Sequence to fold (165 residues):
Amino acid sequence: MNKRILKFIPMILWIIIMLSLSSRPAIVSAKDSKPFEQSLSIVQEKIKTSKSLSVNFNGLLQSPKYLVRKTAHVILYCGLFLTTSLAFMKDNSRMKRYIQVFIFCVFYACLDEVYQTFIPGRTGLIQDVFIDCIGIVIGLALTFIIYEFSRKRNNRIYRFISNTY
Fold:
């Protein structure tokens, strides 16, 4: 199989995973995130009852459901940036590639939110696009750090990227 085609497989698989998660009705999605929410609630209660820690749970930590779901957004879009960046490695200068991948990921986030409006019980929210952008920026930072670190050390990751793509 052509090496050029192979480098798109991780990105395509990641998009399929994201699309399958977006396609789930709200009831199914809520069921899936329930164990994580319960674990977070237990940790939250232990911290609240701890005499040595004083934490204010107003805001994000007040709702474990919100925190779990938004963390999933960040992780998924960080992964999207990483896999898309790998797919377009060596196509352009690094800066141009980072900008193109960033634009693609933001565009996908917008499309995903529109798509979710057609799923029972789901809504498309502009705030989710902004949260997705946090994951995209983290992915950008990780990509840059991994590339620069491996380039300076001329290690296996850099040689793999340089030779494969």
The mean pLDDT is 80. The CA atoms of residues 23 and 70 lie 17 Å apart. DSSP finds seven helices and no strands in the chain. Residues 3-164 form one domain.
